[in-house]
Amino acid sequence: MAPSLLTTTIIQSTVLNAVSNILAQLIDQYKRDKPFALNTPALLQFVTYGIIIVPINLAWQRWLEVTYPGFLFSSSSSTSTSTLPISSAPAASSITQPRPGSGPGPQPGETETELIELKEKLVRPPSNRWLPRWSSSSSSSGKRKRLFNFTMKFLLDQTAGGILNITMFVVLINLLKGASLGRACELVLEDFTPIMIARMKFRPIVSTLLYTVVPLDRRVVFGSACGVIWGVYLSLYAAV
User: Where is this region: Disordered (predicted)?
Assistant: First the structure.
């Protein structure tokens, strides 16, 4: 049985978070001119924080995509005609069969021309009313919709997403270090601004890639991969 998306994402993100924390320890000890010695408690604290945060971020990315779906550069032509209701057009073979109890050829009151016209009408492809609205001929409207959805996801990820992630980082990492909840909340006020400023130098590039080319089920892992450097910064900020 294949592992679930959540399990796979947690495993991959945990490995990347561990790598970023070890790199941070290497940098920190090199700057202090000390031989490298793994700080196991700090590593476990940062990895535990990552395991807790992954499901929350996965749910956040899903909510963004459900609320503002689609990619900025997706093409409406990607909709296949296979999505059209096949049952709307009867098979040609069923049209040519005579009705029960009737003989071959036209029925009374029906000419051969009328039968041909009826057959053409029945096998004619469905009209555009069966197509989804976003794939209609008004491509400019679809482009505006995709641009709006991208903009909303981008802005929400920079604002609400940033506030959520920074707050949880400061609270969780200090609770894991043994601080009280009250002290952890005080540290949010002290540490929020410098971390947010650092995040704004890095996250916009990641968000642009997330909402233009990265599939939904790979976004958290992609963010973790791009965030190895960010993880190093957070690990150093947490005073590994």
Answer: 84-111
